[in-house]
TrEMBL record:
This is RNA-binding protein KhpA. A probable RNA-binding protein. The gene is khpA. HAMAP family: KhpA. It comes from Alloscardovia macacae. The keyword Cytoplasm applies. It is found in: Cytoplasm. GO terms for cellular component: cytoplasm.
Amino acid sequence: MLTEAVEHLIKNIVDFPDDVSVKSHDSARGEHIRVRVNPEDIGRVIGRQGRTASAIRTVVQAISDHNVRVDIIDARR
């Protein structure tokens, strides 16, 4: 459910929604969600001073009943 929510949020922010990839796996510290976007959209997803990324993490944590980590990965690296 969380991966679908993150994917929905991200796809509505970016210019290239077909390039969005959201994968989740469990770790010792909780669920870990990795988001990959088109390199041209990375700035849009992170936002000024990380505000958009922080807001996405806040929303995900609010709808979750456990610890969740959301990472936005730069596909160029």
